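Changelog excerpt: complex records now keep ligands as SMILES alongside chain sequences, and the structure block spans every component. Example after the change:
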Amino acid sequence: MSFLQAVGDFFLPQVCLLCGAEGLDAGRFPICETCLGEFLPVTRPACPRCGAPFKGAGVSHLCGECRQDPPSFDSAWSLFSYTGKARDLVHHLKFHGNLATLSVIAFLLHEEIEAPALARKVDILVPVPMHVNGLKRRGYNQALLVAECLAKLLNLPLDRTHLVKTKETPPQIGLTRAQRRRNIQGIFSVTNRDVFRGKAVLIVDDVYTTGATTRACAGVLKKAGAYRIDVLTFARTMPE
Ligand SMILES: [Zn+2]
Ligand SMILES: [Zn+2]
């Protein structure tokens, strides 16, 4: 698929939204080659479960966290380190409402998921939901927007209503990873189990941070009968 086909629905001649240079493919993509080249891909080897990259070479094995407390999802993968220009791009979407970013983010996610090495069966896409108060504040759920674009490119269904966030995320600052996970327990729920029973679900989000949110979402989806859960995010924060 060409850039043009992929972004056909969003087409407007565009300049790079990060630097103002001409966008890729004669302005059909709102990012330039230089900026795209500065995104830092998440490196391998990485934990096959949560995608955390390991320092140095070596065989892939579960990271300490996944060994100690395995997540309910089967795999999580992010394209880029949440730093520099990749972070700037997410900020344009998340905090400045720049929807032109969606064509870039969805296209790159689509390329990743279609890559032969990663191709896996997915029945349904599910964005990480926002609480109604958060939605009122921001006006949109960026994870939903990304998931909608990706679902379109993949020609797969998306569920936007049956995984819900019933409570706002309590303050997570100063908590350990384990405490964060406990802290977030019970804030997501599934309102209709039939939607996910026996399905391979792809959870979509913009950024993977501690994994507490995705773990919580995956937990309720597994309980609702999803047989496989993969997580795909555009960027992830790197462990210090
Ligand atoms: Zn640029
Ligand atoms: Zn892991």
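The radius of gyration is 18 Å. Strands lie at 75-81, 124-127, 163-165, 188-190, 200-208, 228-236.
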